[in-house]
Amino acid sequence: MAIEQKDVLFTLVKSLSKSEKRQFKLYVGRLGGNADANFISLFNLLDKVSAFNDDLILKKTNIKKQQISNTKAHLYKQILVSLRLNPVHQNVRSQIREQFDFAAILYSKGLYKQSLKILEKAKELALSTGENNSAYEIVEFEKVIESQYITRSLSNRADELAKQAKELSLRNVRASKLSNLSLQLYSLMLKEGYVKDDVDSKKVTLYFEKRLPSYKLSELGFRERLFLYKAYLWHSLIMQDFVSGYKYSQKWVDLFEENPEMKIQNPVFYLKGVNYLLESLYLIKHKTKFNKVLEKLNFDIENENISLNENTTTLTFLYYSQNKLNLYFLEGRFHKGIVFTTKLLKELQKFETKIDAHHIMVFYYKIACMYFGAGKNEECIFYLEKIISNKDLKMREDLLCFTRVLNLVAHYDAGLDYDIDKLIISTYKFLIKMNDLHEVQRKMISFLKNLSTIYPQDIHKAFVKLHKELSEFENHPYEKRAFLYLDVISWLESKIQNVPVEVIIKQKAKKMIK
After folding, report:
1. Largest CB tally within 10 Å, which of 327, 407, 473, 485?
2. CA dist., res. 174 & res. 221, Å (int)
3. Residue 264 to residue 105: CA distance in whole angstroms
4. How confident is the model at residue 140 (pLDDT cuts 50, 70, 90)?
5. Distance (Å, whole) CA 308 – CA 146
6. 1 and 55 in contact (C-beta within 8 Å)?
7. What is the pTM of this model?
8. CA-wise closest residue to 20 among 69, 109, 86, 108
9. 309-344 burial, b for 16+ CB within 10 Å, e for fewer?
10. Is the C-alpha dihedral spanning 253, 255, 261, 262 positive or negative?
11. What is d(CA 426, CA 445) in angstroms, rounded to the nearest whole number?
């Protein structure tokens, strides 16, 4: 059976650019005696084929069956060593690690003074760029060397290093606690989404306050502030406090604007900050600023103002595409959005091996919503089915639930109501299982379930009644989340006024003053 994306070595080889392949061949050529080496033969084979298996290796190379595993492991290591030497992959951290390694070599040769000089320069670089973990490791190494390289200033030097080590240790512990908290909140958001009731709200707030370390903002360095704003952002989003979400995502981005060199050193964190700023602006429907931030992101991408590698290239595609879809939603331009979606799906194929399943499914959900808004319900159902049929999917539970609610509504709108009762029952059971059945969903399901018993002349009144009932939940602290995934109010208004939902949302977009 052909092994394509699952084999880590094959995936690594296929990720190499032409210049990286050329450098690898030059690198192994310098080692001498490698012209006929097994790992070179394997590299040349993997470079040429689009799929492979062990039988192909045995057929096309001189590698014996018992050598395959070791040869693959050796090739994988040599490629990584070659990539490490590539200037494209050099950054501040690698420079610090390289200097540390040089110092360790000099130390092992008993050249203590030379080793200390290199460590001092590396430490200055680490401290100036906020790499406090590396700085702490350097100080600990300096302490080891100073204990063997005796000078008259040893007592002062010892006090200085001890003080430095203590300060760095405290900073690292605080940064670690803040990064742990932001990661744990992010995980909670991915698993369960927004808080559903007062019990959830108190639980999340207690969780947050208990793990938030004490701090003085004036004493925090770049990295500590970054993790602090991330933690507050995730807490705000989970609590459905989208204004606070905007506040902390803006602080996150401003942190990079105040320290522009960090955009080069930490492009991933910068891109993520811009993405969450856009998401927060979308949630508070601040279209003007949303458009401005999105245009700046596009400008930075096109003019390569952001340090681009394969990782950041994937992220720029992911974040720009998701937020471009959100802009179409804000403006109610669903047919225009479908034109963009067609291009997006082609681009998505290029990145699907580098984007996790969760984000792929989020794309499918947004695409389904785009088709729904354009009145193309069968296409909407097609993309929703991709999510529903994926039994191994680890995705936000609230998105899984609203996928099924939208699927139910799309079936009704498409006139595919011959099996609607079964679909209603399965949707209801799924929501109960997920503990995610709330008033908006309950009323929607009940309404669709009873439609078959309503006389045709009374359907308009039924839509008006449901619209009135659901409108009361638009500003509800917990129920309002239902409208983030599916604009039920606009859908009902389109039924009441007998116009496409796209028309309703466009009218609302024009009235937006933000």
Report:
1. 407
2. 11
3. 30
4. very high
5. 41
6. no
7. 0.80
8. 86
9. eeebebbbbbbbbbbbbbbbbbbbbbeebbebbeeb
10. negative
11. 11
> Which amino acid does the sequence have at 87?
P
Q: What single letter denotes the amino acid at residue 500?
A: P
In the structure encoding, which two tokens stand for residue 145, read together? 């060397």
List all residues 6 or more positions away from 489 whose beta carbon is below 8 Å from its beta carbon: 467, 470, 471, 474, 483
| CA nearest neighbour of 42 among 29, 56, 31, 32 | 56
Write down the residue that tokens 């191994």 correspond to. 392
Rounded to 10°, the helix 334-351/357-373 angle is: 160
Q: Which two tokens stand for residue 327?
A: 């802009």
9, 76 contact by CB (below 8 A): yes
Give yes or no for a contact between 291 and 335, defined as CB atoms under 8 angstroms apart. Answer: no
Chain segment 484-502, per-residue pLDDT in tens: 767 888 888 888 998 888 8
Q: What is the DSSP letter of 163?
A: H
Other C-beta atoms lying within 10 Å of the C-beta of residue 257: 12
Torsion sign, CA atoms 293, 295, 301, 305: negative
Place of tokens 């009145």: 375
CA dist 459 and 424 (Å) reads 19
Q: Which two tokens stand for residue 452?
A: 């078959």
Tokens of 470: 């659901």
| Angstrom distance (rounded) from CA 15 to CA 354 | 10
Task: Name the residue among 342, 317, 323 with its Cα closest to residue 278.
Answer: 323
* Signed CA dihedral, 302, 307, 309, 313: sign only: negative
What's the DSSP call for residue 436? -
Residues 335 and 174: their CA atoms lie apart, in Å, by 49
Model confidence over 375-417: pLDDT tens digits?
A: 999 999 999 999 988 877 666 676 788 888 888 888 888 887 7
Q: Is the dihedral of CA 278, 307, 127, 90 positive or negative?
A: positive
To which residue do tokens 């395959």 refer?
Answer: 68
Is 373 in contact with 459 (CB distance < 8 Å)? Answer: no
